[in-house]
Amino acid sequence: MSTTVTAPISPTTESALPATAKVPERIPGERPTAGIPFGRLLAVELRKMVDTRAGRWLLIGIGAIIAIALTIMFFNESGHHRFEEYLQATTMPMAILLPVVGILAVTAEWSQRTGLVTYTLEPRRSRVTWAKFLGAMLAGAAAMALSIALAAVVHQAAITIQGYGGDWSIDGDTLLGASLFVLLGIAQGLGFGMLLRNTPAAIVLYFVLPTAWAILGDMVSWLDGAASWLDLNRTMNALFLVDSMSGEQWAQLGTSVAAWVALPVAVGMWMLHRAEVK
Prior knowledge:
Blueprint: H1 11-16, H2 38-51, H3 53-75, H4 83-111, H5 115-121, H6 125-161, H7 172-196, H8 199-219, H9 224-230, H10 232-236, H11 247-272
Organism: Intrasporangium calvum
Transmembrane segments: 57-75, 87-108, 129-154, 174-196, 203-230, 250-272
Keywords: Membrane, Transmembrane, Transmembrane helix
Protein backbone atom coordinates (compact mmCIF):
# COMPACT_ATOMS: atom_id res chain seq x y z
CA MET A 1 0.00 0.00 0.00
CA SER A 2 1.45 3.36 -0.99
CA THR A 3 0.96 6.64 0.81
CA THR A 4 0.74 10.00 -0.92
CA VAL A 5 1.79 13.11 0.97
CA THR A 6 0.46 16.42 -0.29
CA ALA A 7 2.66 19.43 0.42
CA PRO A 8 1.28 22.97 0.77
CA ILE A 9 0.99 24.78 -2.55
CA SER A 10 2.91 28.02 -2.70
CA PRO A 11 1.87 30.90 -5.00
CA THR A 12 4.83 30.13 -7.30
CA THR A 13 3.89 26.47 -7.55
CA GLU A 14 0.25 27.39 -8.08
CA SER A 15 1.11 29.55 -11.08
CA ALA A 16 3.06 26.66 -12.59
CA LEU A 17 0.14 24.21 -12.32
CA PRO A 18 -1.78 23.26 -15.47
CA ALA A 19 -4.94 25.17 -16.16
CA THR A 20 -7.04 22.08 -15.48
CA ALA A 21 -5.58 21.60 -11.99
CA LYS A 22 -7.70 22.83 -9.09
CA VAL A 23 -6.34 24.19 -5.85
CA PRO A 24 -8.28 22.92 -2.80
CA GLU A 25 -10.34 25.66 -1.25
CA ARG A 26 -10.81 26.31 2.43
CA ILE A 27 -13.96 24.67 3.73
CA PRO A 28 -16.43 27.44 4.62
CA GLY A 29 -17.98 27.80 8.03
CA GLU A 30 -16.88 28.54 11.56
CA ARG A 31 -14.30 26.36 13.25
CA PRO A 32 -15.32 24.66 16.53
CA THR A 33 -13.99 26.40 19.60
CA ALA A 34 -15.44 24.07 22.27
CA GLY A 35 -15.58 20.36 23.00
CA ILE A 36 -18.45 18.01 22.27
CA PRO A 37 -21.44 18.91 24.49
CA PHE A 38 -22.11 16.38 27.24
CA GLY A 39 -25.73 16.09 26.12
CA ARG A 40 -24.58 14.88 22.72
CA LEU A 41 -22.25 12.33 24.32
CA LEU A 42 -25.13 11.10 26.45
CA ALA A 43 -27.42 10.78 23.43
CA VAL A 44 -24.75 8.84 21.55
CA GLU A 45 -24.22 6.42 24.44
CA LEU A 46 -27.97 5.85 24.73
CA ARG A 47 -28.15 5.10 21.03
CA LYS A 48 -25.24 2.66 21.26
CA MET A 49 -27.23 0.51 23.69
CA VAL A 50 -29.69 -0.43 20.93
CA ASP A 51 -27.47 -0.01 17.86
CA THR A 52 -25.49 -3.20 18.43
CA ARG A 53 -27.01 -6.59 17.67
CA ALA A 54 -26.24 -7.90 21.16
CA GLY A 55 -27.84 -4.94 22.93
CA ARG A 56 -30.90 -4.97 20.69
CA TRP A 57 -31.58 -8.67 21.12
CA LEU A 58 -30.97 -8.49 24.84
CA LEU A 59 -33.67 -5.84 25.21
CA ILE A 60 -35.98 -7.86 22.96
CA GLY A 61 -35.34 -10.92 25.13
CA ILE A 62 -36.15 -9.01 28.32
CA GLY A 63 -39.38 -7.76 26.76
CA ALA A 64 -40.32 -11.29 25.67
CA ILE A 65 -39.72 -12.72 29.16
CA ILE A 66 -41.84 -9.97 30.74
CA ALA A 67 -44.63 -10.57 28.20
CA ILE A 68 -44.62 -14.32 28.93
CA ALA A 69 -44.68 -13.72 32.69
CA LEU A 70 -47.59 -11.28 32.47
CA THR A 71 -49.52 -13.60 30.14
CA ILE A 72 -49.14 -16.50 32.57
CA MET A 73 -50.32 -14.33 35.46
CA PHE A 74 -53.26 -13.03 33.43
CA PHE A 75 -54.63 -16.55 32.84
CA ASN A 76 -53.50 -18.08 36.13
CA GLU A 77 -56.28 -17.87 38.74
CA SER A 78 -58.26 -15.75 36.26
CA GLY A 79 -55.80 -12.91 36.71
CA HIS A 80 -56.78 -12.39 40.36
CA HIS A 81 -53.45 -10.93 41.46
CA ARG A 82 -52.60 -7.70 43.19
CA PHE A 83 -50.96 -4.91 41.21
CA GLU A 84 -47.84 -5.37 43.32
CA GLU A 85 -47.57 -8.99 42.13
CA TYR A 86 -47.85 -7.91 38.49
CA LEU A 87 -45.14 -5.33 39.15
CA GLN A 88 -42.82 -7.97 40.60
CA ALA A 89 -43.34 -10.06 37.45
CA THR A 90 -42.06 -7.15 35.34
CA THR A 91 -39.22 -5.95 37.55
CA MET A 92 -37.54 -9.27 38.40
CA PRO A 93 -36.50 -10.13 34.80
CA MET A 94 -35.16 -6.60 34.40
CA ALA A 95 -33.27 -6.77 37.69
CA ILE A 96 -31.54 -9.95 36.50
CA LEU A 97 -30.81 -9.06 32.85
CA LEU A 98 -30.56 -5.26 32.64
CA PRO A 99 -27.09 -5.25 34.32
CA VAL A 100 -25.85 -6.98 31.16
CA VAL A 101 -26.90 -3.83 29.27
CA GLY A 102 -24.64 -1.87 31.63
CA ILE A 103 -21.79 -4.29 30.93
CA LEU A 104 -22.25 -4.00 27.16
CA ALA A 105 -22.38 -0.19 27.41
CA VAL A 106 -18.74 -0.27 28.53
CA THR A 107 -17.22 -3.40 26.98
CA ALA A 108 -18.69 -3.17 23.46
CA GLU A 109 -16.15 -0.54 22.35
CA TRP A 110 -13.23 -2.50 23.77
CA SER A 111 -14.39 -5.84 22.38
CA GLN A 112 -15.23 -4.45 18.94
CA ARG A 113 -12.22 -2.09 18.87
CA THR A 114 -14.24 1.06 18.26
CA GLY A 115 -12.88 2.82 21.33
CA LEU A 116 -10.10 4.41 19.26
CA VAL A 117 -12.70 6.36 17.28
CA THR A 118 -14.58 7.38 20.43
CA TYR A 119 -11.52 8.63 22.29
CA THR A 120 -10.16 10.36 19.19
CA LEU A 121 -13.35 12.39 18.84
CA GLU A 122 -13.50 12.99 22.61
CA PRO A 123 -10.06 12.53 24.23
CA ARG A 124 -11.39 13.36 27.70
CA ARG A 125 -12.23 9.84 28.80
CA SER A 126 -13.93 10.91 32.01
CA ARG A 127 -16.71 12.64 30.07
CA VAL A 128 -17.28 9.55 27.93
CA THR A 129 -17.28 7.31 31.03
CA TRP A 130 -19.81 9.46 32.87
CA ALA A 131 -21.97 9.60 29.74
CA LYS A 132 -22.00 5.79 29.69
CA PHE A 133 -22.79 5.61 33.40
CA LEU A 134 -25.59 8.20 33.30
CA GLY A 135 -26.97 6.72 30.07
CA ALA A 136 -27.24 3.27 31.63
CA MET A 137 -28.95 4.74 34.71
CA LEU A 138 -31.44 6.64 32.53
CA ALA A 139 -32.13 3.48 30.54
CA GLY A 140 -32.79 1.65 33.81
CA ALA A 141 -35.15 4.38 35.02
CA ALA A 142 -37.03 4.31 31.70
CA ALA A 143 -37.28 0.51 31.88
CA MET A 144 -38.64 0.75 35.42
CA ALA A 145 -41.28 3.27 34.33
CA LEU A 146 -42.22 0.99 31.43
CA SER A 147 -42.55 -2.00 33.77
CA ILE A 148 -44.94 -0.05 36.01
CA ALA A 149 -47.03 0.90 32.97
CA LEU A 150 -47.14 -2.70 31.68
CA ALA A 151 -48.12 -4.03 35.09
CA ALA A 152 -50.90 -1.45 35.33
CA VAL A 153 -52.22 -2.27 31.84
CA VAL A 154 -52.38 -6.03 32.51
CA HIS A 155 -53.88 -5.50 35.96
CA GLN A 156 -56.57 -3.27 34.47
CA ALA A 157 -57.17 -5.85 31.72
CA ALA A 158 -57.74 -8.49 34.39
CA ILE A 159 -60.26 -6.18 36.07
CA THR A 160 -62.09 -5.44 32.81
CA ILE A 161 -61.98 -8.82 31.07
CA GLN A 162 -61.68 -11.35 33.87
CA GLY A 163 -64.11 -9.58 36.18
CA TYR A 164 -61.54 -9.17 38.95
CA GLY A 165 -62.28 -6.62 41.64
CA GLY A 166 -58.69 -5.39 41.54
CA ASP A 167 -56.20 -4.41 44.18
CA TRP A 168 -54.10 -1.34 43.37
CA SER A 169 -52.66 -1.04 46.86
CA ILE A 170 -48.96 -0.29 46.76
CA ASP A 171 -46.96 2.31 48.61
CA GLY A 172 -44.22 4.60 47.42
CA ASP A 173 -41.58 2.84 49.53
CA THR A 174 -42.14 -0.40 47.63
CA LEU A 175 -41.75 1.38 44.28
CA LEU A 176 -38.61 3.10 45.57
CA GLY A 177 -37.16 -0.20 46.76
CA ALA A 178 -37.87 -1.94 43.44
CA SER A 179 -36.31 0.96 41.52
CA LEU A 180 -33.18 0.90 43.69
CA PHE A 181 -32.95 -2.88 43.20
CA VAL A 182 -32.88 -2.44 39.41
CA LEU A 183 -30.55 0.59 39.34
CA LEU A 184 -28.02 -0.90 41.77
CA GLY A 185 -27.82 -3.99 39.59
CA ILE A 186 -27.11 -1.87 36.51
CA ALA A 187 -24.41 0.08 38.40
CA GLN A 188 -22.81 -3.20 39.46
CA GLY A 189 -22.79 -4.36 35.84
CA LEU A 190 -21.13 -1.11 34.79
CA GLY A 191 -18.46 -1.62 37.45
CA PHE A 192 -17.64 -5.15 36.27
CA GLY A 193 -17.55 -3.94 32.67
CA MET A 194 -15.11 -1.15 33.52
CA LEU A 195 -12.88 -3.50 35.51
CA LEU A 196 -12.54 -6.18 32.82
CA ARG A 197 -13.37 -4.40 29.53
CA ASN A 198 -14.19 -7.81 28.05
CA THR A 199 -17.81 -8.79 27.45
CA PRO A 200 -17.76 -12.57 28.11
CA ALA A 201 -15.48 -12.28 31.15
CA ALA A 202 -17.52 -9.44 32.68
CA ILE A 203 -20.86 -11.23 32.18
CA VAL A 204 -19.58 -14.53 33.59
CA LEU A 205 -17.93 -12.97 36.64
CA TYR A 206 -20.94 -10.71 37.28
CA PHE A 207 -23.18 -13.73 37.69
CA VAL A 208 -20.67 -16.22 39.14
CA LEU A 209 -18.86 -14.24 41.86
CA PRO A 210 -21.88 -12.91 43.81
CA THR A 211 -23.70 -16.25 43.40
CA ALA A 212 -20.68 -18.23 44.61
CA TRP A 213 -20.30 -15.93 47.61
CA ALA A 214 -24.01 -16.31 48.43
CA ILE A 215 -23.73 -20.12 48.26
CA LEU A 216 -20.65 -20.12 50.50
CA GLY A 217 -22.41 -17.87 52.98
CA ASP A 218 -25.33 -20.30 53.20
CA MET A 219 -23.24 -23.49 53.32
CA VAL A 220 -20.34 -22.46 55.59
CA SER A 221 -21.61 -21.58 59.04
CA TRP A 222 -18.69 -19.36 60.07
CA LEU A 223 -19.19 -17.23 56.93
CA ASP A 224 -22.84 -16.52 57.69
CA GLY A 225 -22.04 -13.45 59.78
CA ALA A 226 -19.88 -11.93 57.04
CA ALA A 227 -22.43 -12.87 54.38
CA SER A 228 -25.13 -10.91 56.16
CA TRP A 229 -23.00 -7.81 55.51
CA LEU A 230 -21.35 -8.68 52.20
CA ASP A 231 -23.93 -10.79 50.35
CA LEU A 232 -25.52 -8.26 48.00
CA ASN A 233 -28.31 -10.65 46.97
CA ARG A 234 -29.32 -11.05 50.62
CA THR A 235 -29.11 -7.39 51.60
CA MET A 236 -30.92 -6.10 48.48
CA ASN A 237 -33.93 -8.34 49.10
CA ALA A 238 -34.81 -6.09 52.03
CA LEU A 239 -35.43 -3.25 49.54
CA PHE A 240 -38.83 -4.74 48.72
CA LEU A 241 -39.75 -4.03 52.37
CA VAL A 242 -37.89 -0.73 52.50
CA ASP A 243 -40.52 0.86 54.75
CA SER A 244 -39.75 -1.65 57.52
CA MET A 245 -35.95 -1.83 57.13
CA SER A 246 -34.06 -1.41 60.37
CA GLY A 247 -30.91 0.66 60.86
CA GLU A 248 -28.81 -2.51 60.83
CA GLN A 249 -30.33 -3.61 57.53
CA TRP A 250 -29.52 -0.22 55.99
CA ALA A 251 -25.95 -0.55 57.27
CA GLN A 252 -25.68 -4.05 55.82
CA LEU A 253 -27.03 -2.82 52.48
CA GLY A 254 -24.58 0.08 52.45
CA THR A 255 -21.64 -2.21 53.22
CA SER A 256 -22.52 -4.71 50.50
CA VAL A 257 -23.16 -1.93 47.95
CA ALA A 258 -19.78 -0.38 48.79
CA ALA A 259 -18.05 -3.74 48.23
CA TRP A 260 -19.90 -4.94 45.12
CA VAL A 261 -20.96 -1.68 43.42
CA ALA A 262 -19.02 1.39 44.55
CA LEU A 263 -15.59 -0.29 44.67
CA PRO A 264 -15.82 -1.91 41.19
CA VAL A 265 -17.10 1.36 39.71
CA ALA A 266 -14.34 3.47 41.33
CA VAL A 267 -11.49 1.08 40.47
CA GLY A 268 -12.98 0.40 37.04
CA MET A 269 -13.09 4.10 36.19
CA TRP A 270 -9.49 4.50 37.31
CA MET A 271 -8.39 1.58 35.12
CA LEU A 272 -10.56 2.65 32.18
CA HIS A 273 -8.94 6.09 32.10
CA ARG A 274 -5.44 4.56 32.01
CA ALA A 275 -5.94 1.54 29.77
CA GLU A 276 -4.26 1.52 26.37
CA VAL A 277 -6.71 1.97 23.52
CA LYS A 278 -5.96 -0.31 20.58
